[in-house]
Design a protein that fits this description.
homodimer; about 450 residues; alpha/beta; Alkaline Phosphatase, subunit A; Arylsulfatase, C-terminal domain; 2 domains; 4-stranded antiparallel beta sheet; 10 helices; about 25% helix; about 20% strand; globular
Chain lengths: ~450, ~450
């Protein structure tokens, strides 16, 4: 099933374009190739086509909530290092410091045209927006989609909490606000994200530079309200209509790649920022796993991940090897011959050999799992050890009297603690290595303003 | 995706052979094409090949426990009609009366060579064994696999409860006992079932008659102990080794079909008798559904179902249409031009148009669900109404104060009752039609001895 490609091929060739599609709170179980689609009342043939034409990971992991997972995707570092383990309230600086090197900056420096479309949530003020952090242009929302409920919420007024606005901006210029992001705009935004992404792909495919389109779709994050063009389309309710909309939007992106004639030289990735939405009535489906976002359970961190690169990445290949979103930085950097920072701890592992089929094994055996700033669990091979118990985002986290260890092969729903205490060794090694790195490179605290420079 | 075939084709052609493979308590989530396999520590490529070369049903349903599901598969009638809704203890007659027409008898009468290999559980005494009920020959166990634990159980002695024995028999002859079915034989039996099934396929493929091989594998029913040849093979424990063994056994059956040169004229079906095993440490995986066998939850009744018939049944086709195990009788009878009884209520619906791609819709919209003799729920389209709440096989069934209705699209785990009370109408119609039929054709009571003839 795996291709064997000589090492220098993808470095020496023309650099591939990258279309990175990131859904928001889309659970493991939602799309057809992961057991959803039809069982959710809406087939997802366009998204599923990536499984048919590319590689499907069954064990792709992300941090457990939006801002941290997006931070680790963007920086190749655990979010707790960059002060983005949670969303700060209270007027302090949110998001990534300018000091972080983003994948946008790395690819931009490597000669890529970079566009960001969709939800950011990594800094909502000037200096920390996508066009300040390595992207040539952007459109989207600086924060997140539950804020779309504010303008029509009883008791709310803008002087208490200003509404979120859609924005756009270009590198070197100040971003500007477009419209209040309310429930009307919430229904419309993915169409606009898709339209602008398609325009970027069409335009940049004609240019001499390779391109990197970061398409951060807003669905299905609460409130899960589909575009009017899809409302009622499936006859199976908002959720199914949303899936149909998402599938059509991904289809438009795939069509744009084809029409631009760059299919063979374009990597397309479809994944989700974390596990399933939990807030009712918009809660999602973790498929076979237990737990939803904001938890360290598999349902909180295991996400769909499909990657296509015709002729380079095996088609119809399925793997249960552990990969983490944080690995995207080093992996894409390697493929794009971009630089990975060497002046800071990088948690990103280069998975290009694995993804390109030169190794059947992932370059990673495990990882620590934080929920906010709490080291909640460690995953290693097919085991998981929970230091803290938290079953849902609304349950208080409680320290386990003894850490609970689960065998994910025999107990995928993490319900029956095992006596496999030998796995504590390699797991604590993972934690120890992190702790050691923090001694040399202290964590950037949440709310840290720019300019930030690490103490020598 | 669907083939269009003129109606008389499969009736006029040479009748197809049928290899019907039935796993025992294999949950929806276990095999690769349903999200298991690699995630369980053992790939299942041979079983999955049937999804690739055939049609995969996402909404195949069975009765909730072994004897009833096997009875409805065998008779095309809800088990409660034939006195097989539960397993009787206490020396009364168990299993199906001779009066029932089995699919073995129907296909035998239609000119098929019929072989039964594996677990029967539809009558453990002479007159009710497979060779008495339409099968030319059989090998297997008359009852079930937990009895394999008896001979080594502390306190047990054979004068208290005689041990189960493996048996074999031929039509017209008395079956005879072979070996005590203990944990040693339990590990070996699927290899023997497979070996005898392969021999039957090889032999009958050369004969002029079409053949029907009913391969009732014993795995993974508790105790889930793999064959010694597979013990330790995956390195991931007994369960994964069992999956590897099952996949290899199915592979042997597929190879036998190929080697016999009858691939194109043979229907191969792989399914399970009911939802996942529950008894620890041998509990299985319902995949994304809640509940396990003995419950009316989706995890109790929804099973994997793959069907291959090259050129006749669409390859790589996936459907979420509702089909029920009880439909196998009328469907296989139609395809084999066999007779369906007309002197009794038949619950079996002919699904051949759906399976053969002449209709995108199943011929069934819903069905009642009994747990033992309790009408526990009704499923209709994407809704389910539970009259009785029972979350596990060990929980007491409790009547719901009001029936709980779940939308399986938006709430696949049946956790959030809806107010969609309009679906009560079509659901009660299903129940009413059954009740009406019982007035004319009283239920055969559990323990009814032969000869049985219905009162006029």
């Amino acid at each position: 099933m795996l291709f064997n490609i000589a090492a220098p091929t993808y470095a020496a060739d023309k650099k591939p374009n990258i279309v990175f599609i990131l859904a928001d709170n889309l659970g493991y179980g939602e799309i057809g190739s992961y057991g959803g689609g039809l069982t959710r009342g809406a087939a997802t043939p366009r998204i599923d086509s990536l499984a048919n034409e590319g590689t499907q990971l069954l064990n792709m992991n992300m941090e457990a909530q939006c801002t941290p997972s997006r931070a680790s995707l963007m920086t190749g570092r655990w979010a707790i290092r960059s002060g983005t383990h949670s969303v700060p309230f209270g007027g302090v600086a949110d998001g990534l410091t300018r000091w972080e090197t983003t994948i946008g900056e790395a690819l931009s420096d490597a000669g890529y045209a970079t566009g960001y479309y969709g939800k950011w949530h990594l800094g909502s003020h000037d200096g920390r927006l996508p066009n300040d952090q390595g992207f040539d242009e952007w459109f989207g929302i600086p924060r997140t989609t539950d804020e779309a409920l504010w303008p029509t919420a009883s008791g709310w007024s803008p002087d208490i909490m200003p509404p979120e606005k859609t924005m756009e901006g270009k590198k070197g210029e100040k971003s500007h606000e477009l419209a209040i992001y309310d429930v009307v705009q919430r229904r419309l935004i993915d169409a606009e994200i898709t339209k602008r992404s398609v325009a970027f792909i069409e335009r940049e495919a004609k240019a001499s530079k390779p391109f990197f389109a970061y398409v951060a779709l807003s669905q299905p994050h609460l409130p899960t309200l589909p575009n009017p063009a899809f409302t009622g389309k499936t006859g199976n309710g908002d959720w199914a209509d949303m899936l149909a909309e998402m599938d059509a939007n991904v289809g438009q992106l795939l069509d744009a790649v084809d029409k631009a004639g760059v299919r063979d030289n374009t990597i397309v990735i479809f994944t989700s920022d974390n596990g399933a939405e939990f807030v009712k009535p918009w809660d999602g489906w973790s498929g076979p796993w237990r737990g939803q976002y904001f938890t360290a359970l598999e349902g909180g961190i295991r996400v769909p991940f499909l990657i296509r690169w015709p002729g380079k990445i095996a088609a119809r290949h399925v793997s249960n090897e552990i990969v983490h979103g944080v690995d995207m930085f080093a992996t894409l950097a390697r493929i794009a011959s971009a630089k990975v920072p060497t002046d800071r701890p990088m948690d990103s592992v280069d998975q290009s050999d694995f993804i390109l089929g030169k190794s059947e094994k992932s370059a990673r055996e495990g990882f620590p799992i934080w929920c906010a700033d709490r080291l909640t669990a460690v995953k290693w091979r097919n085991w998981k050890m929970h230091f803290i118990r938290q079953d849902t985002m609304f349950d208080p986290p409680v320290k386990n009297p003894v850490p609970t260890i689960y065998n994910l092969y025999t107990d995928p729903r993490e319900e029956k603690p095992t006596a496999d205490t030998w796995v504590v060794g390699p797991m604590l090694k993972i934690v120890g290595a992190f702790d050691q790195s923090v001694k040399h490179y202290p964590l950037i605290l949440m709310g840290t303003p720019d300019p930030y420079t690490p103490k020598k």
